[in-house]
Amino acid sequence: MLWIYLLTRLALVAVSYVASWLAPGPDARTPANWLSVWERWDWGHYQAIAEHGYFGSSPGVDPALVDRVAFFPGFPLALRAVHAVVGNWTVAGLLISLVSGAVAVVALGRLAGLGRADGPLAGRRAVTFLLLSPSAIFLAAGYTESLFLAFALPAWLAARRHHWALAGALAAGATTVRISGVFLAAALVVEFLLAHRGRWAGALRSAPWCLLPALPIAGYLGYLWARTGDPMAWKHAQERGWHREFHWPHEAFLNTWRAAFDNLQTTGFAIGFQLELLAVTVGVALLTVLLLRHRWAEAVYVGLTLWALTTSYWFFSVPRATLLWWPLWIGLAHWSLRRAWVREAYLLVVAPLMVVLAVMFTSGRWAG
């Protein structure tokens, strides 16, 4: 699995090199600095938090109005630690994602192969589908997806093996990185209850481990309360900065549809909203399959993620969220082993979008 991972990293380096020549514009004679093509969008928030803290570079600004608190502290803390060693913020972010991604793909491969005679092949398929997925550029950039998966996938693997202490500890790591860790924790509780049906004495001994993921969340909310007087300041920052105030899914759908097709946005953002619609469609299909197959714990995780992402003003960042839906990549891998055409269709139709979105991101366009 790691050789597939390394080859795709080399491919993305090649794509980003080309983008460094394209990003300055058609009349440029010199390329952009290669590292600069990775410093896009949310990266600026992560670096600012790591470098100055949530409030350190905002003198005179009401702490309750600082939008950086929308981002959980796990990745900025890791970024600060690695920067102390390598001395360059962008390199530090890329290294975190590189190492975290390696951990994540190994765990995904083992999850996909659990209980199967063709386990190694299933694992390689799942890893390949993830790494060639349209939004895979975010696994390489200095973003939270790889670090989150490096905690979440081993946590789920530990839970499937009924190692609840390890699962709880790893899930606690995931909750420091993204709010998605809360959805993972909820799924772990469901998995725990299903694993202990009829054996409640054992459940009582292991149940406290399922509470571990709540501790980082409680710590961050307490920090926000102490600094801003508002424990939900992160959510209110999301509402101010990213239009994540509550709307019913049909309202969010209509707003996204208009942004995608009614010429209200520039073309770069319009295609991004089209990708949002496609990603939500994939998520709804995945959730339906999980429910039909009675995969209750995974359905809770995907369902909560979908609810969170489809109840804002519009659908936003759903393509990136698909990277975190490990049941999707495992399900596609297993399906491809039963139907050979699935692998060919994916590689010929879906995988090329990975290159397109990688060029979009590294050249400064919104890519999900």
TrEMBL record:
Q: Which domain of life is it from?
A: Bacteria
Q: Which GO terms describe its cellular component?
A: mannosyltransferase complex; membrane
Membrane topology qualifier: Multi-pass membrane protein
| Pathways per UniProt | Glycolipid biosynthesis; glycosylphosphatidylinositol-anchor biosynthesis
Its keywords, alphabetically, are: Endoplasmic reticulum, Glycosyltransferase, GPI-anchor biosynthesis, Membrane, Transferase, Transmembrane, Transmembrane helix
Q: Where in the cell is it found?
A: Endoplasmic reticulum membrane
Signal among keywords: no
User: Does the record bear Cell division in its keywords?
Assistant: no
List the PANTHER family hit by this protein, alphabetically. Answer: GPI MANNOSYLTRANSFERASE 2 (PTHR12468)
Q: What is this protein called?
A: Glycosyltransferase RgtA/B/C/D-like domain-containing protein
Organism whose genome encodes this protein: Streptomyces hainanensis
